[in-house]
Structure formats: structure tokens, C-alpha cells
Amino acid sequence: MSVQLGPEWQQLQRRLAASPTEYEHQIRQTLQASLLLIETDARQLASRDTGRLGASINGRIEGAYPALTGRVGPSVNYGAFVEFGRRAGARMPPVDALLGWVRRHWSPAFVGPLRQGQLRPRRAAGRNVSDAQIRSRAFALARAIARRGIPAHPFLQPAYAKNQARIVAGFAAINIRMTAYFAGRPL
Fold first, then answer.
1. CB 58 within 8 A of CB 40
2. How far is CA 184 from CA 5, 11, 47, 158, in A?
3. What pLDDT does residue 2 have?
4. pLDDT in tens, 118-165
């Protein structure tokens, strides 16, 4: 008895031979879409002062197939401190890193106690403010951060949690697309 295989069998063999390349393509495509979802929401959730933190959030794919890894995060150094906060008693942050913030949020009425519920006015440092005064305020702020810490303002974790179901569904759809690919009817 002899068995003859038709052209469909040869086409299936070609698709099976190309399957690692097709799997890699599908995984990269889905991983990139997932990173974009997280990136978009993280940028919206990131704390705003100058917008630098949100603008620095990017995603990238690392590694080689089959061990591909997607990473999303800010490229600025202070991103981790915004996401996770800073514990009280930790080392003092660098004074130079706070100079720009102090210039933008200078409050001439900074000295003296405030009544409960009273807010200090925020306005940029004027022309009559010296660099030494700004550095002095930045040092005082750095010391206060070291003593009290700063609360966390997460933006990456909520962005991932919001998109987790869509990401899982995207990776589950890879198997459906690959099955259709093997059947010769790509979706």
C-alpha cells in the first residue's frame, strides 16, 4: 500500500518550517502593542511639573526570540522616586537636582509657621532672588525630604493594571492566529 501526499502537505511543511519566524513576528507585534498601551496611560498618570517625566517614558523590547522581554519606564533618574516614593531617614537627595524645582516654586513667604489649612503662594523666583538664596532653599528642601521622605505617586503600576486584561487577551490571540496560519488561512 502506498500513501501519496498532495501539494497541501508540502505547503504545511513550508509553514511549519517558517513557524519560528512567524511566532517571533506575532510575539514582537503583540509585545509592542502592549508596551504602547502601558506607555500611553503611564504618561497620562505621571506627575506634572515640567512634563519631563511623562515625556521620558518609553518602551523597548530586549532579548532574542524566544526570550523577548518588554520594558516600559522613564529615562529620568527621579522616575523611581516618583513611582515608589522615598522613605523617611533615607540619604538626602542631591541639592543640585532640586535647584530647578525651587526656582519654579519659589515662595518669598517661606519663613515662619503657617496656620492650619493655609497654603503658601507659588510663584517663580524673581530677579531679586540670588543663586545663594535658591541653593539655601534647595538644601533645606533636600534635608526635609531626607527627614520626612516623600509619598509614592505611582504611574507605571496603575497603567499596567489598567491594561492587563487587554495584554493577556493579545497574547492569547497569538495561538489563534498561529493555528489559522498553519491551516493556510491567516487572519
1. no
2. 16, 8, 49, 40
3. 54
4. 555 555 555 677 888 889 889 999 999 999 999 999 999 999 999 999
Say how far residue 29 (Cα) sits from the centre of its chain. Answer: 19
Q: Would you list the domain boundaries of the chain?
A: 8-85+151-187, 88-111+120-150
Which pLDDT band, with edges at 50, 70 and 90, does 1 fall under?
low
The full DSSP string for 106-126 is --TT-SS---TT---------
> What DSSP line would sit under 20-32, residue for residue?
HHHHHHHHHHHHH
Query: Is 66 strand, coil or helix?
Result: coil
Nearest to 163 by CA among 69, 41, 55: 41
CB 167 within 8 A of CB 37: yes
95 grid coordinates: 541639592
Yes or no: say if 52 and 100 are a contact pair by the CB < 8 Å rule: no
How many secondary structure helices (H) and strands (E) does the chain include? Answer: 7, 2
Which residues contact residue 73 at a Cβ distance below 8 angstroms, ignoring those fewer than 6 apart?
A: 57, 58, 79, 156
- Please state the separation of Cα 106 from the chain's center in Å: 29
What's the pTM value of the predicted model, to 2 decimals? 0.74
The pLDDT tens digits for 34-92 are 999 999 999 999 988 888 999 999 999 998 887 889 999 999 988 999 999 999 998 99
